[in-house]
Design goal:
single chain, alpha+beta, eight-stranded antiparallel beta sheet, 5 helices, 8 strands, about 30% strand, globular
Length: about 170
């Protein structure tokens, strides 16, 4: 698990909400506190769709909504002259990308119990903090997946030109 302080909040938020930088992620949850408190549950709501739509794998490839489809909604909730008093966004790496990371890192033995590689974006009066995590369906002693994810996320931020400091 990493705790990362973002040095330039404005640049990060632009990359998160306006660019395609985080489009390879899924949204588990978003909480945004502005003039109201807004909470978005990223789970796909299957009751909204027809049986035919639910059977289309292109419409429902994931349990959660894709960030690229949700970021505009989040942006609309926070744009304006005032910044949110609080914001928390929980993102997951897409399952096929998580599998590739495990495969390339030689850690496929944990693939069947890996639920997600997670990053939590938290903004408040103290600044912008990112926290990485690895979610498993059961407890395991092997920390290789955690290390792979932490290293991959560090590299991701660096490649994207996001200035950060580990705390």
């Amino acid at each position: 698990m990493l705790a990362i302080q973002i040095k330039d909040v404005k640049i990060f938020m632009s990359k998160l909400l306006s660019a395609d930088t985080f489009d390879s992620f899924l949204l588990e949850e978003a909480q945004i506190h502005t003039f109201n408190t807004f909470t978005i549950d990223g789970h796909q709501n299957h009751e909204f769709y027809t049986k035919e739509e639910l059977e289309d794998p292109e419409l429902f490839p994931y349990e959660y909504s894709q960030w690229k489809d949700m970021k505009g909604i989040c942006f609309q909730l926070i744009k304006g002259k005032k910044v949110p008093t609080f914001m928390k966004i929980i993102l997951h790496k897409k399952p096929e990308e998580a599998y590739t990371l495990l495969e390339e890192g030689g850690a496929l033995e944990v693939a069947e119990v890996l639920k997600a590689f997670v990053v939590t974006v938290k903004y408040d009066a103290n600044g912008l903090l990112l926290t990485t995590g690895t979610s498993f369906s059961t407890f395991i002693m092997d920390k290789s997946a955690d290390l792979l994810w932490d290293n991959a996320f560090r590299k991701f931020l660096t490649v994207q030109g996001i200035d950060f400091e580990e705390i």
